[in-house]
Design a protein that fits this description.
It contains 19 helices and no strands. By secondary structure, the protein is mainly α.
Amino acid sequence: MIYKFLFFMSVFFIAFGLVIGNVSIPSQIATIIKSPDYLITDYVEIAGVGGAFFNSGLLMLLFTLLLKLLRVDPTGVSIAAIMTIGGFALFGKNLFNVWPIVTGVFLYTLMVGENLRTYLYVAFFGTALAPITTHLVFGNEFNILGIVIVLFIGFFLPPIASFALTLHKGYNLYNVGFTAGFLGMFIGALLRAYDLHPEPRLIWHERNQLLLALFLFSLFFTIFLFGFKLNGWKLTSYKNILKYSGKLLTDFVLLENEAVTLMNVGILGLCGTIYVLAVGSKLNGPTIGGIMTLAGFGALGKHPKNVLPVAVGVIIGALTNSQPFNSPAMVLAVLFGTTLAPIAGEFGFLWGVVAGYLHSALVINVGSLHFGMNLYNNGFSGGFVAMFLLPIIEAFRNMRNIFLERTKGKNEE
């Protein structure tokens, strides 16, 4: 069933891209492949709606076929990975720049004598560093040397990802984004040392709003209805999902079932779309990428109950800081900042708000460390927020327990 869903997603995007782009698709894809694609580069703006969505759908299809080729039994993490790839294929990942990263991870897997499936999802999420491929191969004309360098980057992703997980203890859902941020930080430092770093950019599409809104509402409403049908047209069992904290790895397909998982994916996708439109932002490559990632992780830890507090925290930050409330940075922080949803799920609404608020400030600063080369900038920021908050939360809980024990002792006297 999950394979059918993933193929449906891929074909839906490809068909939309072909209808909109028509005969111009090849030239649009060529533009996407050759253009610099570090943050924030909107493929919808630089190549057109058709080319961007065709690129997204085709990448989702290829990665789904890779799952099939390796005989993977897909679960919630598969949905999260494929939808995240599809989302970022609208602003940073393309048919050329992802494969050296994936190959590097596979080389590491073979070198340590593991099955290719062992670090498969590290490879999938590790495509966060895909812009480095474009920057080295096309931007600085390193050519084959650039590809070799990116292979080494992919090679070191698995061991660093395993270590990074111990730092935030699973409370940052975008663990590989945190990992990619570390790698990107050192790569960015080296590029700056040799004056090879890119300049900041913001390419942001603002047209075709009705078309993109109709596409997203059709997509996510269809996904919800499909899950609703699988669930016997009942909402009752959906509430089971809300009891989970969302901490890695909370795979809703394994813990519940495919039906309520797809319902959750559809609901989160609709919520994300409504939010972007409600605050007066624009539907484009980056915001749709955020919506797709939010929805995709509806299969791997996120649900409305643990997402809402973090979103509220980011919104409070956006309303009170110097950034415009509906600026690209703040809108994306709301969508992607839900990587910290497990903090709200585990420790409660208030701590979720605190996490979101801190994230709204940190995320606008850490991007300069990797020069936009890590597409999962919010995952990088989220890892630091989780590392900072966890010991503080633990300290408050210990103080509360001591206070309660002392109060209890006095009452007994």
